[in-house]
């Protein structure tokens, strides 16, 4: 599986994502510029955290118009795995690949800490190496992470098993239904505010994020 | 021609900035203030020969300036000075 880590102006977790995949997991991964017009030869897309285009207008709003996004959308529609963390999640909602939106944290503060999460759905291509309802801890670092969607969309997300991660103890940002990460209806696009790529080695103090990448790289028997 | 486009959260969406500012206003002693809404505005200037400015405004708002999951907008055509 060959993966692209998209680099936008203002991305700042691209290196973390690349290292988690390449150095820690031994994956075939390459940086791809936001200006690229083709993702031919790539089997999946990783959209990193950061502040693409300075979060101007709304977080992720301008990145949606980068040339590479046409290709990201093409791959997503074709069923390829697409993963976005933090700003990547915001970009995926702005691009219409995931429902809902991320708004300012209720606290009005940038929140940077480790939070407890529940793996709500371990039957996805990103989470099958976790156990059902497993509690994990992952770092968050964001100011605009409050997940919002109208009630009908929330009901649909819950009914379809699209809520993959939920804040398990405190809700750090005001997200509705304590949502920390969701997939699209097809299950091949995952967006989440927490940073699994920052929790993949013992030296980082936490390895709870590692199995997300291992899940992606080792398709379950059912796939 | 200049058009001012106002973008705010929908009324049903909690506006944390507005709430924080309201609290600060209360701290100033203005207890009579019951609500503050924070939004953004964009002054968009069109070339005089632009054919259908209102259609353009709507397209720009729909496709870029507004996230309809959580936001709404209004606009006004500004007086020529």
From TrEMBL, chain A:
Predominant cellular place of this UniProt entry's protein: cytoplasm
Example GO BP: 'de novo' IMP biosynthetic process
Keyword Acetylation recorded: no
Alphabetical list of InterPro entries matching this protein: Class_I_gatase-like, PRibForGlyAmidine_synth_PurQ
CDD domains reported for this sequence: GATase1_FGAR_AT
Positions of the catalytic residues: 86 (nucleophile), 195, 197
Gene Ontology MF, one: phosphoribosylformylglycinamidine synthase activity
Catalytic activity from the UniProt record: N(2)-formyl-N(1)-(5-phospho-beta-D-ribosyl)glycinamide + L-glutamine + ATP + H2O = 2-formamido-N(1)-(5-O-phospho-beta-D-ribosyl)acetamidine + L-glutamate + ADP + phosphate + H(+); L-glutamine + H2O = L-glutamate + NH4(+)
UniProt pathway: Purine metabolism; IMP biosynthesis via de novo pathway; 5-amino-1-(5-phospho-D-ribosyl)imidazole from N(2)-formyl-N(1)-(5-phospho-D-ribosyl)glycinamide: step 1/2
E.C. number: 6.3.5.3, 3.5.1.2
Pfam families, per database record: GATase_5 (PF13507)
Keywords carried by this UniProt record: ATP-binding, Cytoplasm, Glutamine amidotransferase, Hydrolase, Ligase, Nucleotide-binding, Purine biosynthesis
Subcellular location: Cytoplasm
Keyword Hydrolase carried by entry: yes
GO cellular component, one term: cytoplasm
Organism domain of life: Bacteria
Function of the protein: Part of the phosphoribosylformylglycinamidine synthase complex involved in the purines biosynthetic pathway. Catalyzes the ATP-dependent conversion of formylglycinamide ribonucleotide (FGAR) and glutamine to yield formylglycinamidine ribonucleotide (FGAM) and glutamate. The FGAM synthase complex is composed of three subunits. PurQ produces an ammonia molecule by converting glutamine to glutamate. PurL transfers the ammonia molecule to FGAR to form FGAM in an ATP-dependent manner.
HAMAP family according to UniProt: PurQ (MF_00421)
Subunit composition and interactions: Part of the FGAM synthase complex composed of 1 PurL, 1 PurQ and 2 PurS subunits.
Name the UniProt record assigns to this protein: Phosphoribosylformylglycinamidine synthase subunit PurQ
Automatic annotation (TrEMBL), chain B:
Keywords noted in UniProt: ATP-binding, Cytoplasm, Ligase, Nucleotide-binding, Purine biosynthesis
GO biological process, one term: 'de novo' IMP biosynthetic process
Reaction it catalyzes: N(2)-formyl-N(1)-(5-phospho-beta-D-ribosyl)glycinamide + L-glutamine + ATP + H2O = 2-formamido-N(1)-(5-O-phospho-beta-D-ribosyl)acetamidine + L-glutamate + ADP + phosphate + H(+)
Pathway: Purine metabolism; IMP biosynthesis via de novo pathway; 5-amino-1-(5-phospho-D-ribosyl)imidazole from N(2)-formyl-N(1)-(5-phospho-D-ribosyl)glycinamide: step 1/2
Function: Part of the phosphoribosylformylglycinamidine synthase complex involved in the purines biosynthetic pathway. Catalyzes the ATP-dependent conversion of formylglycinamide ribonucleotide (FGAR) and glutamine to yield formylglycinamidine ribonucleotide (FGAM) and glutamate. The FGAM synthase complex is composed of three subunits. PurQ produces an ammonia molecule by converting glutamine to glutamate. PurL transfers the ammonia molecule to FGAR to form FGAM in an ATP-dependent manner.
Family that this chain belongs to: Belongs to the PurS family.
Protein name, as recorded: Phosphoribosylformylglycinamidine synthase subunit PurS
Species this protein is from: Limosilactobacillus ingluviei DSM 15946
